[in-house]
Amino acid sequence: MRMFSCEISESSGGRTELGAANARMAFANFCAPHTAHARAPAAWQRKDRLTEISGPRAAQQPDLRPHQVELICMDDLKTALRSFAKSVTVISCAHSGERFAMTATAVSEVCLEPPTMLVCINKSASIAAPLIDESRFAINVLDRSQQQISEDCSGRRSGDDRFADQDWTSDHLDTPYLQNSQATIFCRVARTLEYGTHFVVFGEVQGVRANDRPTPLIYIDRRYLDASLDTTVP
Ligand SMILES: Cc1cc2nc3c(=O)[nH]c(=O)nc-3n(C[C@H](O)[C@H](O)[C@H](O)COP(=O)(O)O)c2cc1C
């Protein structure tokens, strides 16, 4: 069994506090028809949680705490989220001689001073603990020709099989990256927040490789799209 040293004790405490009764209520609400008035708010709808697991404590940054959320229709939210056109990336890292990779679209620039990126990683993903522990990772922005790699790294393959494509190589610090990606941004974990089901990882940019003619692979409405820059809105 692999051991990772990231500290997540506060979040486990949070889950305990929610309790089995609330978990059951949340599950029942999720399964019930989407008539908001008929449902009691699920635990997460009444109280969101934010736990910082590295750096200054979240409690000292009240502006980071989310407001209480209103009852929402999850189907409507999922429909809204499907309309985001996202560049597909694969996040990659190495830990104790093992390589990890995961397709991700919840990726964003944060600021240029200091140069910082942000990635949202489900806590259950195999890359989550090693990435936080290792602290170095790469954001590979996929080219439109790399849909297969996206599919490999989002569940079709697992473990080191995700690195079957010839395009994978490693930098001088052993961080795996894709040579023919649109761009690769090498980061060091600067801060990690734990929010709901995800880790929100802030990465300080350490290096960049970029293709100056972007032909990215786009994900929208649960489909891959080849977004050619030849077609622009007049
Ligand atoms: C287009 C696309 C985008 C995704 N974006 C994310 C993301 O931003 N964060 C995340 O945690 N999972 C995301 N996923 C899901 C993971 O890639 C998928 O669950 C993966 O299998 C998790 O890794 P594991 O199998 O090693 O646990 C995305 C999947 C796809 C197909």
TrEMBL record:
Domain Flavin reductase like positions: 81-226
GO molecular function: FMN binding; riboflavin reductase (NADPH) activity
Keywords per UniProt: Oxidoreductase
Top-level taxon of the source organism: Bacteria
Entry-linked InterPro entries: Flavin_Rdtase-like_dom, NADH-dep_flavin_reductase, Split_barrel_FMN-bd
Protein name: Flavin reductase like domain-containing protein
SUPFAM superfamilies xref list: FMN-binding split barrel
